[in-house]
Amino acid sequence: MKLLVISHACVTPINQDFWSFVMHKYGWNIDLVVPETWRGEYGLVAAQRWKSFTGRIWKLPVLFSGSVPLHIYRARLDKVIEKVDPDVVYVHHEPYGLATFQWYLANKIAKSVPIGFFSWQNILKNYPLPIQVGEQWVYRNSSFAFVGSKGAEEVLREKGYKGPVYYKPGFVNLDIYKPYPEEARKIRRELGVEDKYVIGFVGRLVREKGVVTLVKALGLLDDRLDWVCFLSERETC
Description:
This protein has helices at residues 17-26, 77-84, 98-110, 129-140, 150-159, 181-191, 211-219; strands spanning 2-6, 29-35, 37-40, 43-46, 57-60, 62-63, 72-73, 88-91, 115-119, 144-147, 165-167, 197-198, 227-228. By secondary structure, the chain is an alpha/beta fold.
C-alpha cells in the first residue's frame, strides 16, 4: 500500500509519530506532505522529521500560513501526486478547508485514486457560499472520511456527506507520554502542593478548548476539597 498523507499538523514532528506507527505495523509506504513553515501561536515553525518516521517528507511552501481553513499550497500538487504514485490520498484536514479542495482537484487532474479527509468538527457551522460549494464538492468526490467523534459524524451527515465514515480518535504514544511518579512528586514539592488536589488542563487557553467550562466546574466543587490550579510554575490561576 502506498499512501500519500497531507497534514499541516505534521509540521510539528511529534504529530508524525502516528504515521510512523502505521508504517511499522502494516508495512505501508507513506509519503507525507507538510508545509515548509507554519506560523502558529508560538511563532514560525520550520518542518522537521520525527525520529521514527522513515517515509519521504515533502515540504511545500504555503500561502496564509497559520490559517487552518484558508491556507493553500504554492506548488503543482498534481505533479507531487504523479511522482508519489499513491494507491490512496488522505487529506488530514477538514473538508471545508481550501487546502482540502486544492488537493482533491489535484488528484482529479493527476490520477483520481481514492481520496478522503478528516473531521473533528462536532458543531454545525454555516460558511460563506464559496466555501460551502467547495465543501460539497469534496463530499461528492470522497471515497471515505475519518472522524474524531460520533458528534463529528453527525455533523457530516447533516451537511450532506453520504460516504463511509471511520473513527480515528486522537493518538497518544504511551511509550512517550506516561506517568512519572517520582518526577510528579518532585514537582509537587517544588510548588508546595503536596497535600492539595491538583487538576491538570491540557490545551490552549481559549474558550473552544473548554477552559471556561473547567473554571465554572471548579466553582462548583465542595469547599472542603483543597485544590489548586497552575498555569505555570510561577503563576497560579
